[in-house]
Amino acid sequence: MSLTRDIARPSLVMNDNPPEQRRLAARHIASRARDAKECAELLSMLGLSPDDGLTREE
Question: Which domain of life is it from (predicted)?
């Protein structure tokens, strides 16, 4: 008998979300991160990039 088992976990990747939701998520992460490195790591974990935080005008 195995002591470990696969537990289904929801995906954290936000690729299927609308652009506005991705933009808001990226901006929220950027506002909470301690520094640029942490921000980049958190964005990456969620499948986001710094460009996701930009509006079309930016």
Answer: Bacteria
Q: Which amino acid is at 23?
A: R
Q: Tell me the Cα Rg of the chain.
A: 15
- Per-residue pLDDT tens for 4-31? 555 555 555 666 788 899 999 999 999 9
Nearest to 45 by CA among 19, 26, 20, 18: 26
**pTM of the predicted structure, to 2 decimals:** 0.69
DSSP calls for 25-48: HHHHHHHH-SSHHHHHHHHHHTT-
pLDDT at 36 over 70: yes
